[in-house]
Write a structure and sequence with these properties.
The protein has 2 domains: 210 residues, 3-Layer(bba) Sandwich (FAD/NAD(P)-binding domain); 130 residues, 2-Layer Sandwich (D-Amino Acid Oxidase, Chain A, domain 2). It is 28% helix and 29% strand. The strands form 3 sheets. Strands 1, 2, 7, 8, 9, 10, 16 and 17 form an 8-stranded mixed β-sheet that branches. Strands 3, 4, 5, 6 and 12 form a 5-stranded mixed β-sheet that branches. A 4-stranded antiparallel β-sheet has the order 13-14-11-15. Helix 1 links the parallel strand 1 and strand 2. Helix 1 packs parallel to helix 5. It is globular, with a radius of gyration of 21 Å. Its EC number is 1.-.-.-. Keywords: Oxidoreductase.
Length: 396
Amino acid sequence: MKTYDWIVVGAGIAGAALAYELVKKGYAVLLLEQQAIPQNATRYSYGGIAFWAGTTPLTKQLCAEGIALHQNLSQELDFDTEFRELDLLLTIPADTNPQEVAVSYTRFDIPPTLLSVKEACELEPLLNPNAIAGALTVKHGHIHPEKTAQAYTTAFLRAGGEMKIEQVINLYPHSLTPPPSDFLRFTEVQTTTETYYSANTVVCAGGLSRQLFQASNVSIKLYFTHAEMLETPPIDSIQLRTLVMPANFNRFQLETESSKNDSVWTQPDSEVVPPILDTGAIQFKDGSFRFGQISRALTNPFAQIDSTESEATIRQGLKEILPILGDLPGTWHRCLVSFSHDALPVVGRISGHEGIYAFSGFSNPLAIVPTLARRFANWVSGEKDEIILKLCPQRL
């Protein structure tokens, strides 16, 4: 019976990056992903890297390390992640005081610059000037998230890692004795078709992490939203110069409010707080757009959502801010986005469960996942890391 040093559950960018960093350290690693074509948060991400958005010494350091890593990642992985820097434009509603909004952003490591309506429309000509009182702008990193995850996975396999497309349904510590004279402790990972054994298992399943931990009788304070967006095919006739997002970003407030009471998340089919809309848009290098997003705090990860109504809501928001984009042909999608109550990721060993780790709950994933994956691999290899310790599940 084959065993592994590490089993990584989930092949979004978090799992793919972590699997790569672990196999680089010489570990025998198995990467498990439930879908051949993942439909996760990486797949439907805008691809933004908010390296400017650190607000504490910890997050500032992670963001700085993250952008430095991204700048050389395509070369390291021998795969184009489509990294670039572009202008982020944070729109301020017409009925809002721009100076007050600008003050609220002074806590960030690189505070955005306040623009007048005229300046904002010069930077992004597709904006509706009547819908805004101004905007904030700052340089923002951007990658193609799917290609970046693919880059990590390809490099992982090239380095000797193994990957299987199977859905994990349970995990728990298990005792094996590979040679009879040695007693080793392994985690048993059950999928819909096989059982695998590993000295350590790390869950990088994003919004499905909580469900998997609950199925395995592991208590952890991780939560998720249902994020909804529209995606278009490549369109050459329209060019969006910037990444457009609202300055008054509602998603983080929704995450804070919906995670105040952990017990409600054990109740099936509950809507913890009302849904919100954060109107935003990005155009990728191939000309395709992603628009969004609606966020819903529904405790059932497979809850039914009226896609027609959601699409109409997203399009209405677009028509107010970016009118020319509102009627572009596109397809509605949804995914789960994981988060924790304090907006920091949950990284480290689960107390009381030998060999089981979490690597999830990233509110600013693309900026910090690559550097935290590297730090995690170094930490489990024996290096001290105060940042990893500060992100442990026990802090919650």
